Each structure stands twice: as structure tokens, then as C-alpha cells.
Amino acid sequence: MRLYLKYFSIHLKSQMQYKVSFFLTALGQFLVSFTALLGVYFMMSRFNEVAGFTLQEVLLCYGTILLAFSIAECFGRGFDVFPQMIGNGEFDRALVRPRPIVFQVLSSKMEFTRIGRVLQAVFVFCYAIPASGIVWTGDKILTLALMIICGSIVFFALFLVYAAFSFFTLEGLEFMNVLTNGGREFGRYPFSVYGDGVLKFLTYIVPLALFQYYPLLYLLGRETGIAYMLSPLMGLLFLIPAYAFWRFGLSRYKSTGS
Amino acid sequence: MIALQNINKTFRVAKRQAGFGNAVKALFSREYEMVHALNDVSFTIRDGEMVGYIGPNGAGKSTTIKIMCGVLNPDNGVCTIDGRIPWKERVAHVREIGVVFGQRSQLWWDVPVIDSFELIRDIYKVDEKLYKQNLDELSALLDLSEILKTPARSLSLGQRMRCEIAASLLHSPKTLFLDEPTIGLDAVSKIAVRQFIKKLNAERGTTVILTTHDMQDIEALTERILLIGKGRILLDGSLAELKKRSSERKTLVVEYSGSMPTMCEGMTLAESREGRLIVALDPAVLPVSDAITKLAAQTELLDVSVSDITAEEMVAALYREYRI
Amino acid sequence: MSKYLAILRIRFSNSLQYRAAAIAGMVTQFAWGFMEILAFSAFYKVNPDAFPMGFSQTVSYIWMQQAFLALFMMWFFENEIFASIANGSIAYELARPIDLYNRWFCQSAANRLARAALRCMPILIVAFIVPEPFRMSLPPNIGQFLLFLLSAALSLGVVVSFSMLIYISTFYTLSPVGVRFIAAALSDFLAGATIPLPFFPEQLRTIAQWLPFASMQNMPLRVYSGNITGSDAVRGILLQIAWLVILVIIGKLLMKSALKKVIVQGG
Q1: Would the CB atoms of C185 and A32 count as touching at under 8 Å?
Q2: What pLDDT, in 10s, does the model give residues A24-57?
Q3: What tens digit of pLDDT does each residue of C23-52 get?
Q4: C72 to chain A, minimum CA–CA distance in Å?
Q5: Which residues of chain A have a CB within 8 Å of the CB of C55?
Q6: Which residues are CB-neighbours of C53 under 8 A, at least 6 positions away?
Q7: B168 CB within 8 Å of a chain A CB
Q8: pTM for the structure as a whole
């Protein structure tokens, strides 16, 4: 942990060497997701509701997904640039150092410009939390916290899967975008909007709905079962196959070297 | 002690042919071929030895180094380094080795070198006292004290390489792998790096394994040479021995004015520029004095010098001999 | 002309080599389009009367957008060009007997065409066989289809000439990444990449339709789906031509002064 903080400070130092670039990129990040927000706003003000959710309720979803994704991206950025790390041989350097591999990959890159997105998610929450009409009792606050924390971890696991795929192919990685960036883009509406098939897929295969749709129902008081409240925790199980896949990819890398 | 026994390694590579038609074809089916990167490679390196590992590009040098570093597993065969199998006990193994990849940096681009060093200290959990001692010693030997506060991006190539080498030695490794450490350096830096490596080996007894294309590195540094070609170890011996093998051969540098002389038996033209020839000579076929006479008969000689074959030419001759 | 054709051919060969990338890209774009359509259909269920386009028009809009993503999206930048400005290898480009603006323009257009050509067919085939209401429909008539082709070509021109301005801005700014993000985000949004322009609120739409961004994907996609027809289509295409000319002129002028700066400062 101390070493991670060390990495953290050295990354921060590096990025602060280019302050103008840093702020413009952060602003860019803010704007990119701002246009997505505008899209939601335009659609919701035209139709007033979607699949039984109002604008304020949708915004809770939007904030959760965006914040979870940005946190995961900020700290899991090492996985995101992992294909380059393999491509340019930097990964071999990690292999000749006496620390856990995942730790080294994670600390190899941190992306603080994502603060632009985090800020936006915070703004959205500032509006949606009071406007949603929810009475924020202890259990609801806990649920929202679980949604965000577990959401980050699930996205984080998805990045891990993405990185693991790059042991097999460096070109064919684009399809993972459907799950990572796609998860963020489409998660701005509750996943039930996309119909039963998609919802099932996002419940049982890639558990994005477990920290978004189900606990949202609990927040809104439409479901009261404790299972709905704790469903984000179940999503954490996704880490197991993700990590197993990473191990599998790593062992293959060590036998092919590419 | 490093011991490799019957190490084999094969890779599957996709064939890629030029041309638009072939590119379309490759969309649907792709041919693969098996490449034997290493074929029954065995050798032993004792503690404190300094070994030059040479061979043309693609001969299997870096595959061997990767196996010894624990980055790659071989298909079969045994490799033990200080009793450990590198790819099975990665963490314990890599604590004892230092690796310099000549073409890739381990320094952080935008922060002062000293910050990178401190991070490496923490990665290897180097004891503060030992770190201090190593840092002082390395900065003195490699003349780093002036540049430790500079970000890596503003260092010259030679300065950066010296820092790279220091970075790989902060944890006092028993074995140092150097992959082309002098590539792209100017003459002064090359000599500084060589002197340092020599000193390191002599004073600390660090085992050094060096791959390079620069024969002067080999000449200056290593007692022992391993020659690899097409995945096989072709030669394992001392530089002196190798030189003896081809010592009968001489190099003639001839300056002349007038028409260019023709070669006769026993002479091979190595290089020809206006008024200047470099000729490889086999004295067993044609004695040196006869050769000069023959040349003098054909043109007006201005200057002739005779020397033993250089390491560079020797290696080129070896490559030719083994067709690699 | 032959040198421009050569650029095009090299780009095609290059992109053909990356088979896995092409397949992965198609899967992504297909899944993406499908999700978009599902979202729109959820809104359609809420209130069909509030839907500003026909539903099947929207479906066609989205499938065409995904199939020709590389043609119309601003964020497909040429990293080569950014790199050549940043690291100074632009000096070599200047030594070649070819106008740099034309060369970059051609290179970007060729790359976009190559990517799109490689990827559009499978997506279109699937889009034509999925069950209703997700199936894509043909344009109402052949005339409309020809208008679409014309408008698509102009749209590519407008997209590339706008992205040229962003490349050129790299000469003047310290942060190409930031500028790139911001420009791409704004222009793609105003071009109807996130939601089609008809879904915009009234006032914003009135302004947006005159901006150069509306001459990008907005035009060809809506012409194809039959959302813009007749004299509206002709007017739109004239506007596209106007923007194309204006953007190219601005780009060439900026390029000239940027290069002057490069030469004076020695890069």
C-alpha cells in the first residue's frame, strides 16, 4: 500500500508537468460525458418517462454508472493501456520485478484527467439525490454507497478481462468496448429499458445490472427485499472468473512470449 | 551458478505475404509455421563469470535471456539459476537479478532520476543503509551525482544508459543481464560503460551476461563467448581461442594510385574505395610478402599495413562459416 | 491523381491485414446499434406521438450510422498526423512534391473509406435480416438513394475538412489531446451522433441545422431513411456544399500560415 502511494505521487508529479494539457483533457472528459447527459435530458424532457422511470430516477442511474466507471478507470487505467505495455515490451520489465504482476500493471498508469467525469457525476448526484423524492434513510444511503463501490469493482474486473484478452490478441480488443464503454453509455438508463434478454445477460453473465437496476428498485421503494439492497455485493463474484481468465492469459504469455 | 540443459522453445508465427490479393486471402485463412527459436540449448555459467552472448538477429539470444529472467517458459529442458527455476519461483528469482534492456527504459520519463531510484528501492524493498551505500558507490563510479536531479527526458542517451545500469544494480543483484547496453552511445559513453561493467565484475563478483552486436564490447569485456545461430549453441569458448582459430588470417589495408589490382588465390576483397583496398588474406595459401609483391606488380602502392583479423571480421567469418 | 489513388490502395491493404480488428469492430458496432435501437423503442412505447421521426426511419438511421461509423464520426483521427506535427517529422512531409493539405485530406478520407468499406457489409446484411421492428428498410425510392450517395460523399468531405482544422490547430496549441476531445464531443453531438437532430428541443434544432455539423452524418442518414426528402434534401445538400467550400478554404489558409510559422521557427 505504501508503495502504491509512492506510485500515486510519482504519477501525479509526472502529469502535473503538463498542467495546461491536464486541465484541457479533464475539461474534454467533462464535455464528452456532458453531451451524453444532454442527450438523456432531451429525450426525457420530450417523453417524460421511460420504462416507468422519471428523469430524476434515470439521473440516479446515470450518476451511479458514471461515477463507478470513472473511479474504475482512474485506478484501473493500467489495464486499459495494457495492450501497449505488451506491445512495447514494457510488460517484460514487470515480470523481472519482485512484486505481484497485477499490482505492477495497476501502478504503471494512473489517469487523473478522469476527474472531469467524476466531477460531472458528482454534479448529477447533487441534483438527483434531493430531487428524486427518496427519503434518505440509513439503508438507502448504504445501498447507494454499495452501488457505487461495487460498480467500480465490476468495471474494474471488466478492465481486467480486457487486459487478459490482450494476451491473446492485440487487434481484436475492440469488442470489449461494448461491455466497458458500452456499459457506461447504455447504463445511463436503467437496464430494464433494453428488454428482458439484455437484462438477463447483464444479471447473470456480466453483472452490470446487479449494481444498477436492482438496487435502484430498492432505492425507489418499488422493491423492499434485502436481496435487492445487497445485490451489488453479488456482482463482486464476477471478480473470480475475471481473475482466473487473467491467470490463464498470463500463463499463455509466458509460454509464447507474445 | 546458471545451468541450462537441453532447452527447447518453439513459436507459431503467422505467415504474412505482400500484395493486395494476399491480404484479402489472409482475411479468411492464415498459414502458420513453427519456428524453432531454441534447439537443445545447454550451457553452464559459473558465479562471477562474464559471458558475451552473440549471434545475428533472430538467432535466439533474447529468447534465452527471457528464459533466464523468468519471463518465458521453455517447452522442455531444465534451467536452474542458483538452484531456482526462474519461471516457477519468479519473485524469489528476480530479486537476485538485474536486467538492462538497452532499448527500453525503466526510468520515469518526467520525474528526476532520483525519484525513479527511490521507487525501485521500494519495489525491491532494499534496506535503507544498503541503498544509501549502493547509491553513493554507483554515483561515484558512473559519475551520476550531477544528473540525479534531472528528469530522464532531458538526459543524453549516454547519461540515460548510465542511470539505467545504476537502476538495475540498486538491489545488489548476483547476476546482471545486459541486452545491448552500448547501443547508440557515443564513444566516450561506451568506454565509460565498459569500464564500469568490468569493475563491477571484478570488485563485486557480479555474474554478467551480455548480448551485443558491438564486437568492441566483447573484446573489451568478456573472456568467454557463446555463439548462437538458428537456435543452436554453435561455439562456446574464450575469445583468445576463437581468435587463434582464425589467426592465420590477416587483414591487408592497401593504398595505391593507378589501376585497381586484381585479386589472386588466397586473397579476398573485403572493401574497396577509391585508392584504398581492404583484403582478407590466408597466409597458408599466399604468404604476406608474396601478396605484397603481387599487388606491387600491378599498381603503384602508397601504403600497406598488415594486421590480425579484427573481432568484427572474425564474427562475420563465423557467421559465414555456420551459414547463419 | 495517381498518387492519391496509391494512398487509397495502401490504406486498404493496411486495414485488411487486421482481420481480428475488423471482426471485433463489426461485433461492437452491431451490438451498439442494437442497444441504441432498444433504447429508442422503449421511448417509442411510452408515447409514439412524441416521436419526431418514423420509428423505422430511426432504425435505419442507427443501422446506417453504425455501418458507416468510420465515415462520419469526428473522433476517428489520424494519429500519424498528430504525431508528425508533434515530433517534427513534418519536415520530411514538406520535402515531398505534394501539397500537404491535399495529402492529409486524402489520407484521412482514404482511411475512413477503407475502414468503412471493410466493415459496413456484414453489419448491413445482418441489419436487413433481423426481425421487425428492428429490420432496416431500403430508401423510399431510387432517387432518394442517389441523393443519399451524393449527400454521404459531401458529408465525408465536411467531416474531413473539419478534422483538418483540428490537425492544424495542433500547430498552435500545447494540448492536442484536450482540443481533440472537446472538438470531437461537441461536433459529434451537434451532428446527431448521440441522438438524431429531430429529437433536439425546437430552439436548439433551429440553430443546429445551420451549423456545419448538421452537414455531417445528420444529412446522409436522414436522407437515406426518408426523413428529409424533396426540396428539403436539395437545400440541405446545397448547404453541405457551401460548408465544404468554406471549411476547405479556411483550412488551406490556416495551413499556409501554420507552415510559414514552422519554416520560420525551424519546426
Answers
A1: yes
A2: 888 888 888 889 999 999 999 999 999 999 999 9
A3: 888 888 899 999 999 999 999 999 999 999
A4: 17
A5: none
A6: C61, C196, C198, C199, C222, C225, C227
A7: no
A8: 0.85
